[in-house]
Batch of 2 targets.
Target 1
Amino acid sequence: MSSLIPTIEHTHPDFLVVYKPAGVHFHSQDGNAGLVAKLEAQLGESLYPVHRLDTPTSGLVVLARHPAAAATLTEQFTAHQVEKRYLALSTQKPKKKQGTIKGGMAKARRGAWKLTQERENFAITQFISHSLRPGVRAFLLRPRSGRTHQIRVALKSLGAPILGDALYGGDEADRTYLHAWSLGFDWQGEWQQFWLSPRQGEVWGEELAPLLSQWQSNDPDWPQN
């Protein structure tokens, strides 16, 4: 399916910015080539992952093109110096419309994770939300840490699991509606900023574009609590 083919959105001598479709594994598994392997075969060069996206998540990924760039980018991601913005949809009403979700992350059952009161593996996610249409709410999320399933667990904790995310109780849909919309980071003294609107999923709808334009032109005052 053409919708499952990764595409290169920006080429730099030191890194690539790539679109990962929903449903594409990041790493190779079960005998199938993952995102990185597919692009290495396409380009005929080695690529170095510096962060990752869950299989159901679509959106922007940075891949370093040599070990020195990989070390620098990994350091930035580890130090939370990369500005990330995610989009999500839910059909459930959240406990609050904006705020910050904090807590430790611990393994639960069936490969899921859960929030705890502990400080171990601590996760922080800021979010705002907006009614997209009756019965569908859009979330703009800013993770301040990089934990496994962080955003998926955060929205479940609000009582608004992501649409299509069966692992966390989301309503059935044609995909999991979580998308890595934006990445921004400093590179050799110049700020690099990349945006990519969702390409898969019927439920995003035409109402999303003006909302994204508003969020992109005026970064919101992110809630602290």
Target 2
Amino acid sequence: MSKPASPDLWPQQSAKTELGADYDTMDLILYGFEHWWNTNEIAKELEVSIEFVDKIHYRWKEMEHKRRTPLVPKLFLRTVGHDFRLPYNIE
């Protein structure tokens, strides 16, 4: 028997309860975002509600700052973590 995924910040917490879906579904939704699919396509393909995908999309955009590396001096033509980041105005 395997234990369900959990951040373990408090007793009985589970990732599925916090996020509204299991990690397999969340991975597929995030894959769709990273490949510029619109939320309607993702919802239709995964057979989940558009409202749920929109909610995850909002959270994904709002947490972009956590995925960014700190600014560093530019030493070469391209700086890892700077030139490869998503723009701030993701739709």
